[in-house]
Design brief:
InterPro entries: AMP-bd_C_sf (IPR045851), AMP-dep_synth/lig_dom (IPR000873), ANL_N_sf (IPR042099), ApeI-like (IPR054545), ATP-dep_AMP-bd_enzyme (IPR050237), HotDog_dom_sf (IPR029069). Keywords: Ligase. Pfam families: AMP-binding (PF00501), ApeI-like (PF22818). This is AMP-binding protein. This protein is an alpha/beta fold. Among the domains are: 149 residues, Rossmann fold; 108 residues, ANL, C-terminal domain (GMP Synthetase, Chain A, domain 3, 2-Layer Sandwich); 115 residues, Thiol Ester Dehydrase, Chain A. It is 28% helix and 31% strand. The protein is built from 15 helices and 29 strands. The strands form 6 sheets. The chain has a 9-stranded mixed β-sheet with strand order 2-1-9-8-10-11-12-13-14, with helices on both faces. A 6-stranded antiparallel β-sheet has the order 24-25-27-28-29-26, with helices on one face. Strands 5-3-4-6-7 form a 5-stranded mixed β-sheet, with helices on both faces. The longest helix has 19 residues. The radius of gyration is 27 Å and the shape is globular.
Length: 581
C-alpha cells in the first residue's frame, strides 16, 4: 500500500508537481513549492481548534496542499460538492472550521502570507480518520461517509497497479472536480502518489481541452457529460497523439458516445463504476459487439442479493469486511462480470449529479406554495440533456399568485426556493400546475400518467410570441415591403433555453440568426439558397419574458437580409445574411 506522505516527502524538490494556466500560458509548480504550501496549511490547521475541518478550494494544487496540511495537523477533512446554503448548514453541524473558499458567512480560514511550519515532514498512520465525504443537499438529507486513510491509499494502489503501467509519466488533465471522491482520487491523490503532474484547473470547454491535451503526454479524467459532447469539428489529432488514457465516471457512458470519443481521442474510455460509499467497484471499456459488462476491480468481491436483485460488494475500499448492498440492480455476465440494470430507488443521475427526486418534492412542499408535488425525469432525447418535470398542486397562496401574476411568476419563485437546496442542474425545466394529481383505480399516481400530461413528444415552444409593429410600403416595382419591425417575447419555457445556461437562461445566438431568416422569408421574397453571414455581432444577451424588437430590411438587388435585435437596453445583435446562388 502506497505511503502518500513518504512519496511526496522523498521527491526531488525541483520536480514538477503540477501546472497552472493563466491567459493560455502554463506555469509549472515545483514539488518544493507544493510542500511549502502544505506547511502553510498545516500551520494554520495546528493553530485552529477542533478535529474536523470543512474544505473547499477550486484550484487542485492548492486544494491538495490544504488537504495534506490538514491531515498532517490531525484534522479530519469534510468535503462537499458545492457551497450551497443547504450544504454548508449540513457541514456546520459537524465541523469546527471552514477552510478555503466558502461564502463569507462561514468565516473561511486561509494561511497568512508568511505562514510556514518548522515541524518535520510526516504523515498520519493508516487508520487515521482522514476524510468524510459530505453529500450535498441535492441528494436529500446529507449523509456523512467516513474514510480512513488506508481506504484511500489502498484504492490509489489498486488504480496504479491496474492502469499505471500504461500511463507512465502522463500529466493529469481533468474536467471534473476533486470535491467528489472520483475527482479526489483520480485528479489529486493518485497522481501525487505516482509522481504525475496535476493541472490545477478543471477544464470546462472543449476548445481548452483540445489545446491542453495536445501539449505533452497526459491522461484525461472526465465524465460522460463531457465525453458525449466532444465536438467533432475541433482538431483532436494532437490530443490523440499525446493521450495515454481516458477515464470516465459518474454515470454510464452510452456505447455510441464511447465509440465517438474513442474515434476523436484515440483511446477507448475506461469507465469506473463506484460511489462515495463504496469507492471504486468495477471498470469496463466499450468495444464493438461487447455487452457493456463490468469487471470488478482487484480486491473487490460482488454478488447479487437474492431478494432484491441488487448488487452487493465487499472490498478493502469499504470501512469494514461486511457486504454492502447498493441501489443498483444487476445481472450476471460471462467471465465473472455483471451488467447494470438500473437503480432501485428514486435517486437519479442528471449530468452525473446524484439527485433525489424525493428531496426536490419535499422542498417544493416546504415552500408553502404547493400542497402536493411530484417530480419525474423527462424521457431523454438524442443529443439533449436530460431534464426534470415538476407537477404541482398549488396551495391557496400558490393559487393566489397564479391568478395575480401568472405561471412564470410561480415558476420563478419555486425555482428560487429550490436554488438554496439543490444544484442548478437539478432545477425542474418543465412545470405543470394541476387541480389534482392523476390517479388510477388503485389510488396511485403512475409515471405513465404524469408523462401523458406532458403530451406526446416535447411540447416546449421553439419560436417566440410575435407581433407586427411596422411594415414599410414596398418601393415601386417591388412585390414585398423592404422593411418590417416585429416585437418578440421569448417564453421562459422555450426549448432552446435548455442547458443554455444552468445559471440563467440566455437565448443562443444561432437561434437568433435562425429566427431572422425565418421571419425574413415570411415577410420578403427572399432568394433561395444561403450564401453566408457578414458583420455578425452579439452585444447583449436576450432574456426570457422581456419584450424586444427585430428589425428586418431586405435588399432584393443584392439578395441581402439586414437584421437587428434591440430593446430599451440597446442593441442585442445584428448582421447581414446573404442569399442566392
Amino acid at each position: 500500500m502506497v505511503d502518500l506522505f513518504s512519496v511526496l516527502g522523498a521527491r526531488d524538490g525541483a520536480a514538477i508537481a503540477g501546472w497552472r494556466e493563466a491567459a493560455s500560458v502554463s506555469t509549472p509548480v515545483s514539488v518544493a513549492a507544493l510542500r511549502a504550501r502544505v506547511g502553510a496549511w498545516r500551520a494554520l490547521a495546528l493553530r485552529t481548534p477542533g478535529a474536523n475541518a470543512a474544505l473547499y478550494i477550486d484550484d487542485s494544487l492548492e486544494f491538495a496542499a490544504a488537504l495534506l496540511g490538514a491531515w498532517q495537523a490531525g484534522k479530519t477533512v469534510w468535503l462537499s460538492a458545492d457551497t450551497l446554503d443547504a450544504s454548508c448548514v449540513a457541514l456546520a453541524r459537524s465541523v469546527d472550521c471552514f477552510l478555503g473558499e466558502f461564502p463569507p458567512r462561514w468565516t473561511p480560514l486561509h494561511p497568512r502570507q508568511d505562514e510556514a511550519c518548522a515541524l518535520p515532514w510526516s504523515g498520519p498512520d493508516a487508520s487515521f480518520p482522514a476524510l468524510v465525504v459530505h453529500t450535498s443537499g441535492s441528494t436529500g438529507e446529507p449523509q456523512a461517509i467516513p474514510k480512513k486513510l488506508s481506504q484511500l491509499t489502498g484504492e490509489v494502489s489498486t488504480l496504479e497497479a491496474l492502469f499505471g503501467p500504461a500511463m507512465g509519466d502522463a500529466e493529469i488533465i481533468a474536467t471534473v472536480s476533486h470535491q467528489h471522491i472520483y475527482g479526489l482520487l483520480f485528479k489529486v491523490l493518485w497522481p501525487l502518489a505516482a509522481g504525475r503532474a496535476i493541472h490545477a484547473a478543471s477544464l470546462a470547454f472543449p476548445e481548452q481541452l483540445a489545446l491542453m491535451l495536445g501539449q505533452r503526454p497526459c491522461a484525461l479524467v472526465a465524465s460522460p457529460a463531457h465525453l458525449k459532447r466532444l465536438p467533432s469539428h475541433l482538431d483532436w489529432s494532437a490530443a490523440a497523439t499525446c493521450l495515454r488514457a481516458v477515464f470516465s465516471s459518474g454515470g454510464p457512458l452510452a456505447p455510441d458516445a464511447s465509440v465517438a470519443a474513442a474515434h476523436l481521442l484515440g483511446h477507448v474510455p475506461t469507465e469506473i463504476y463506484g460511489s462515495s460509499e463504496t469507492g471504486g467497484v468495477a471498470w469496463r471499456r466499450h468495444h464493438p459487439g461487447s455487452p457493456g459488462a463490468w469487471e470488478a476491480l482487484p480486491g473487490v468481491a460482488w454478488r447479487i442479493a437474492p431478494d432484491s436483485g441488487r448488487l452487493e460488494v465487499r472490498s478493502h475500499h469499504l470501512g469494514d469486511d461486511g457486504w454492502l448492498e447498493l441501489e443498483d440492480r444487476v445481472s450476471s455476465a460471462p467471465d465473472a462480470r455483471f451488467l447494470l440494470l438500473g437503480r432501485g430507488d428514486r435517486l437519479v443521475k442528471i449530468e452525473e449529479k446524484r439527485i433525489s427526486l424525493d428531496a426536490i418534492e419535499a422542498a417544493l412542499l416546504a415552500s408553502g406554495f404547493a400542497s402536493e408535488a411530484r417530480v419525474i425525469v423527462c424521457p431523454e432525447r438524442a443529443g439533449e440533456r436530460q431534464v426534470l418535470a415538476a407537477f404541482v398542486v398549488a396551495s391557496a397562496s400558490g393559487r393566489a399568485l397564479l391568478g395575480a401574476e401568472g405561471k412564470q411568476a410561480l415558476n420563478a419563485l419555486l425555482r428560487a426556493h429550490l436554488g438554496g437546496v439543490v444544484e442548478a442542474v437539478a432545477l425542474p425545466r418543465r412545470w405543470r400546475y394541476l387541480d389534482q394529481l392523476p390517479f388510477n383505480a388503485q389510488g396511485k399516481t403512475t409515471h405513465a400518467q404524469l408523462l401523458a400530461l406532458l403530451g406526446v413528444g416535447d411540447a416546449r415552444p421553439r419560436v417566440p410570441q410575435v407581433r407586427l409593429i411596422e411594415r414599410d410600403a414596398p418601393p415601386d416595382g417591388e412585390p414585398n415591403g423592404a422593411r418590417v419591425l416585429l416585437e418578440l417575447v421569448v417564453p421562459s419555457t422555450l426549448f432552446y433555453f435548455d442547458g443554455h445556461f444552468t445559471q440563467a437562461p440566455v437565448l443562443p445566438g444561432v437561434v437568433q440568426v435562425d429566427w431572422a431568416i425565418r421571419y425574413g422569408r415570411e415577410h420578403f421574397a427572399v432568394a433561395p439558397g444561403f450564401r453566408g453571414i457578414h458583420a455578425l455581432k452579439f452585444q447583449q444577451v436576450v432574456r426570457p419574458d422581456v419584450p424586444f424588437r427585430l428589425e428586418l430590411k431586405y435588399d432584393s438587388a443584392s439578395c441581402t437580409l439586414h437584421f437587428r435585435y434591440f430593446s430599451d437596453a440597446g442593441q442585442h445583435a445584428g448582421g447581414r445574411i446573404l442569399f442566392g446562388p
